[in-house]
Amino acid sequence: MLEKTSLENLENSEYRLKVFEKYKDLKKPDWKRVKYKYEEPQEFKKFDNFSTKNENQEGMEVKGINDSLEDLERLKSNYEYGLGEFFKLQNFAFYNQGQFIKIKERKKIEHPIYLTYVADKENNFLVDYNVIEVEDFASATIIISYNSSDDAESYHNGVIKVFAGANSNVKIIKIQTLNTKSRNFESSKIEVKGQGIVNYYSVELGAQVNAVSHTSYLLEDNSQAYVFPGYLADGDRKVDLEYSTVFYGRKTLGDIHGRGAVKDTATKVFRGNMYFKQGASKSEGREGEFAILLDKNINVHSIPTLFCDEDDVIGEHYASIGKVNESQLFYLMSRGLSESRAKKLIVESSFKPILNNIDDEALREHLLEELEERI
């Protein structure tokens, strides 16, 4: 159990203790669709296996989250996001890592910025809080990775917030490949101002229990957010993914295009939500999921929804869920591939629209190898 005493000697302890008083009375989550009842970690621990790369480029600032409290207060907003109060308050009280990245106005950052968290036997409790601010007319690519270096069980509760200024251009690539003894819980949001563009790639290949909730807010006219989730649910894993886009500004554009594969006896839930608020006239939103089912004993749910308070908008949703395309399979096997290899090739090709946009060849190859090994 996470105890109050573990917070008393940490930085920002007064704030942490206040949050804990609210946290301790909250009911623990229960995911009925994936049949998982939450279990709290046994103890708070430090997490030291973290690194950054390309953080010293001109026009940007990177610092630890404890050194960024004034920035966090300045960026504070009431736009809701995430897996609920339980995980947010746990994060605010027990965070043990996190970074604040600021890209200054009109600066174009040439090389991708990396934040890398690696779980292992000694670093198996990670609660991180990451905030990315990209000012007006600025651009950057940020790659955030969570992975395991051994087979030790680990716990992750993460928060990612992105604030994209007017006319900014931002690419966020989040990759989660924790081992399948681990539990992953993530809450994230993006706020985009006028004519800003954000592309968000969420690659979910790891963890035994994986729950993700992301929301994009298009706050001003002509803002854009494109979300590309990719997942693999195999073994007896439990995967619950939710991606939402909220349209406030006029002529805004928002897409959610999920791609994934499910096999063995895994359970997967994919929720895609579009909210058109009053005043978001002439906005367009499209969301859906393309899922390949590789076995008979899986349990899958796809839940696309549209909520509309404005008349003059375009909202589309779809769900394409089924077995491997038989004609594609026959064609590949007629060219000499085994059935197993042909299925792997089809699944890998479905991930290509996501993988091709990862600005790191070595990282792309690593993800393809992960898919190759587990499909």
From TrEMBL:
Name of the protein: Fe-S cluster assembly protein SufD
Lineage: Bacteria, Fusobacteriati, Fusobacteriota, Fusobacteriia, Fusobacteriales
InterPro entries in UniProt: Fe-S_cluster_assembly_SufBD, SUF_FeS_clus_asmbl_SufBD_core, SUF_FeS_clus_asmbl_SufBD_sf, SUF_FeS_clus_asmbl_SufD
Domain of life: Bacteria
PANTHER family: PROTEIN ABCI7, CHLOROPLASTIC (PTHR43575:SF1)
Domain SUF system FeS cluster assembly SufBD core: 119-348
One GO BP annotation of this record: iron-sulfur cluster assembly
Gene of this entry: sufD
